[in-house]
Every structure is written in structure tokens, then in C-alpha cells.
Amino acid sequence: MILGMNSYQGNVQGKANEPITVAGLLDRAWGSLGGSAPDWSLDRIYDRLEQNAPRIAVIGGSPDHPAHIMDLETVYKAALKIWREGGVPFYFSTPVLCDGTAQNNMGMSYSLQSRNAIAEMVVNQMEAHSYHGAFVIQGCDKQPLGVLSGLAHLDLIRRRRGEHPVFAMFAPAHVLKGGTIPDHVRRELEALTAEARSAGYEDIAEDIVEAVSYILQCSSNTSFQGVFQRAVACQLITEERHKWFEKELAVHTCDSKGGICAFHGTGNSSRDVTAALGFVYPELELLTEPPTQAQVDRAVESLFSIIQRPECSVGELLRANIRNAVRIHSSGGGSTNLVMHIVGAMIYAGYPFSLEDMEAILLEHPIPDLFDYSLTEGRDIYVLAQQCCSGQIRGTETLMYELVRNGVPMDLDAPTVTGQSWRSRMADTQGLAADGVKTNPIILSKPKRSFSGVDVLRGNFFEQAVVKISGMPTKQLDLFDNKIAFVVYFEHEEEANRRLLDVHLLDGLKADRVFDIEHMRRMAAHNGGIAYEDIQALDYDRLFDRMIEQEWMRLAFIISGQVTGSVRHARNDDADAAY
To answer: How far are the Cα atoms of 293, 360, 462, 560 from residue 573, in angstroms, in the given order?
Structure first.
């Protein structure tokens, strides 16, 4: 398969430099995996470069992120298959910042900007070495949409220059199996729970019970951390005991094979979005361990099948599938982070797109909640991957099928990286319906409720904020819908953590007379739906207590200096994130 313009044909230096990198990659792959005898040589690699054979970059991540510690195995499988398909395989990786590792320290200041940094690195490397396409080992956090944004932008630029479009296949890392609390640690936690109750700290006892109910993940360790800090402050345990608990939980959290964490955060939401955009080969979408050689082979064959089809380029897949991605993300209850990353990818691809455009897609048709995910009831993404690997369901194809069955308009004729449209892919109905899972289903055929996803909030403190409503009980949503709230503003994360972990926070707000009594009366009248005259005679303390008791009080917590991107255009220039 020979492509058009060849930047290597007149580049003697490139044809001198690059053959040894290709041979080295293939030699290491063969040495690691074995198989048929090598048929590559520097001469043959030179000839393929001269003839403009497809040059495919296998893009991995950094092995200091758990999602990428098994990358090389997949890199080698892909490289060997790319060569056998007549292409020229290369390999490079990008840094991948782990949001969990960066939590609560300066690292979080680098999280959001890493998406743009990754996009820039991808464009730089792809352009510098003139690669036609990419086989992307998709990781977690900002990496998936960072790589996608870079490839989409490069596709735009190549097309404008009249060159061959960029094509790509995404292969998500397998799902990381959640940890298990060892029996001896569980017994110690039960003893601490009893001690807390005996000492009158019922709140600490209940929080320990709740934390224990979660599948052990890095995020659940954070919940434990807050409880232990309070237990130390109350002298229920020593700091040494706290550190013992912390260590025992930490070393039993992550499976040694790594992967994308099993909670439905940014990593798995990115998987949802790239799959819904048509970039993921279906066999590679949800795995419990790294892909087999046969699975990688079929994915690479699919990638080569679309090289000569401009409608399957990165930018075209993105444009054709944007509504599918927004609706899949919404129905699956994806992370709020993905809202800005979806918008960002469209902008990188050269399409005029904004949060308002995404909101318009969400409002075109009600999107039901078809994702019954729970970290306390054995329904994490690892279990979803097990259900897919066993053939009971088919991941994104199943969710799309159920959305259609529930009347949601999906763009079924949009192309995908398989070379087929969604309609063609779903013509084979084996394992397609969500009803295929009889025990503990996560993707549903009958919605939990008629709405899901995210809402765009507006108020007088900010222009727009995105809040995830899919994980919130309907009662909780109703408590805040069309209600007035006081803003509690924190200058930085450390102060917010300290205050929000304080069980006496409300008592402190009352004692400090933080809120104006007249504003409290107006809030009580509006939120409680009662006559203003009925509360006018109450003094400050009695009014405050009644508002808490009757659930008339509403608080919106704003934390300055955060980079999660939950708020855009805050009124205060320093307030970058919200509740």
C-alpha cells in the first residue's frame, strides 16, 4: 500500500537515521514475543521508506503511570503486525500525569495543562518524523484526549496542505482490578469503629463503615485518609497508628499489572468518549488484561483498511460522531472533566464548538440514565470489562443500542475506525442487548430515571459551571434545583480541606455570623416556600438552626486555584473551580 506525498523520498538523512530505529523496535519485539523468523533488514526498511509505505507511530505513555506499565507488550505486538501489513512501525511515548498521584500537592497545578502539552508533543513528533497515522495505547486522565486533540489538529493541518489525512486507532489499556482490604486490616477497622462509637464519635464510626464498603481504589484511600485525620485529632488513634492503616491500605490497592482505575472517573470516561467517537476497535475497548496478539492483529488490520478512506480520518470521525459521544458520555454518567476535553478536541480539529454547542446536543432530546455503576455493590468498570470479555454485552455498542431502543436519536450512519458505520457494526445482534447480563448488570435496558449526565449551571458568581448529576440521587438534585445558595469561598485547597473535614463547620458559620440575617430570611422564604412573616420574629441562632433542620439552607463551596475546569469565566479572576 503506497501513499501520496513522500517526505522521505528526498530526505537522505531520514533514510539513513530511521531504519535502525525500526529494526531495533522489531528486533526487541521478536526477542520478547518470538514467532516467525524476522524478515526485516535495513535494506527492506529503506525500501519501504523510499516507496512511502504507511509509517505508523505506536504512541504509548510513561510507565510511571499505572495505566502504562504494560505498554511495551502491546507496543511489540502492534509493531510486528504493522510490519507484516506492509507498514513501517515506530514507537514514541508521551508523559502521562496521574491525577491521583498529583492530588493535594503542587502536581495538580500541572494536570489540566498536561492535555495541551501532550497534544503539542504529538504534533511535534508526528510532524518531525512524518508519520502517516498512529496506533494509540490509551491511558488515563488527560492523555487520551490530549493525544486525540493533537492527532485531530495534525489532520486539519495536513488536509490544508493538500497532504494525506491522518488516521488513528485507539487501544485502551485494560481495566485495573480494584484491591481488597486484608482481613487483619478489616478487623482493626471494625475495632476502631467500635471505639469511635463508644467514645461518642458516631460520625467517625459511620464514615469508616462507608469507606470500608467501597472497592479499594486510590480514591477510596482518600476517604480513609480524611477519617483517620479526624480520628487522630480526637485522640482515638495515634499518628503512628494512622500511618499503619495508610500503609496497609496503600500497598493492597493496585494490581501489579496496572491498568486504568476501575472507578468511572476521567480515565474510563475518556474510554467512553473515544469509543463513542468511533476510534476504538471493539475487541480492545474493555479488557481485564493486556490484549492478545490476535486481538492486536485484528485492530491493526482494521487500521490499514481505512488508510485510503478520507471519511475515516481523525478529524472526520470526530465531526461525524460528536453527537454520539456527547450522548454516550451523558447516559453513562461520565466525568465532568470530559466536557471541556470534548470541546477542546473539536477546537483542535478546527470545528467551531463551545460548551453551549455541547449543551444544545444534551437538550435536543432527553438522555436517560442507562448506567447502574456502583463501587459499593460490585459494579465497577472491572466488572463491566468482565461482562464484555465473556461476550455477555459489547460495551459502547450495547449502550448505543439501548439508547436507540429508548428513543434517543443516534448517528448510526457515522463511520468508525473499523471502516463500518455503527449501523453495520450493530447488524450482528449477538451479545448486543444489555439483557445479556443476568447478574449485576451495569448497562441497563430500562433507565433508572429519565435524565442523566451533566448540567450547565449559571449564577451571579460565575457565568457557567458544569456539575455531574448522574451520580446524585434525585432527592439531592431536587434540593438544589431553583434554590438560592450562599457561596462559601476558600482561597486555597488546604483551607478547604481543613474546614470541610471539620464536623463543627456549621456551628462555626453560625457563631461567626457569616451570613446576613436578612439574607437568611429571604433564603428561608424562597427555599422553604413559607411566608416571610412566619420567620421574621426568629433570632439569628433559632433561624439558623431551623434552616438546617428543615433543609432550607443551601451552600455552594468555591475553591480558588483549582484546575479541574468545573467553572468557566468565574466572576472572581482567581476562582477557577467550583463545587
So the answer is: 51, 27, 10, 9
CA distance 144 to 123: 14
3-state SS track over 182-239: CHHHHHHHHHHHHHHHHCCCHHHHHHHHHHHHCCECHHHHHHHHHHHHHHHHCCCCCH
What local confidence, expressed as pLDDT, does residue 464 receive?
A: 78
502 and 543 fall within a common domain: yes
> Does 340 fall in a domain?
no
Indicate the pTM of the whole model: 0.89
Amino acid at 96: V
Position 529: which residue type?
G
Mean pLDDT of 463-467: 78
- CA distance to 335, 563, 566, per residue, from 576 (Å): 17, 6, 8
Grid cell at residue 326? 456527547
Residue 360 lies in a domain: no
Domain membership flag for residue 538: yes
pLDDT digits (tens, 9 = 90+) for 405-446: 999 999 999 999 999 999 999 999 999 999 999 999 999 999
User: What does the alpha-carbon distance between residue 555 and residue 563 come to, in Å, rounded to a whole number?
Assistant: 21
Angle at 173 between CA 338 and CA 114, to 5 degrees: 45
Strand partners, 371: 443
Mean pLDDT of the 15-44 span: 94
pLDDT of 288 > 60? The answer is yes
Task: State how far the Cα of 85 lies from the Cα of 562, in Å rounded to an integer.
Answer: 46
| 414 grid coordinates | 457515522
Q: Residue 243: CA atoms inside 13 Å, Cβ hemisphere, count?
A: 3
How many other CB atoms are there within 10 angstroms of residue 262's CB atom?
26
pLDDT of residue 498: 82
Yes or no: say if 320 and 417 are a contact pair by the CB < 8 Å rule: no
Average pLDDT over residues 256-281: 94
Judge if 127 and 194 occupy the same domain: no
Categorize the per-residue pLDDT at 476 as very low, low, confident or very high, splitting at 50, 70 and 90: confident
Q: Is residue 359 part of a domain?
A: no
Residue 58 main-chain phi, psi, to 5 deg: -85, 115
Q: Are residues 212 and 244 in the same domain?
A: yes
Same-domain status, 162 and 244: no
Q: How many domains does the chain have?
A: 3
Write out the DSSP string of 258-288.
--B-SSSSHHHHHHHHHHHTT-B-GGGSS-S
Do 163 and 292 lie in one domain? The reply is yes
Range of the domain at 210: 183-251
Asked if residue 309 and residue 170 are part of one domain, the reply reads yes
b (16+ CB within 10 A) / e for 111-133: bbebbebbbebbbebbeebbbbb
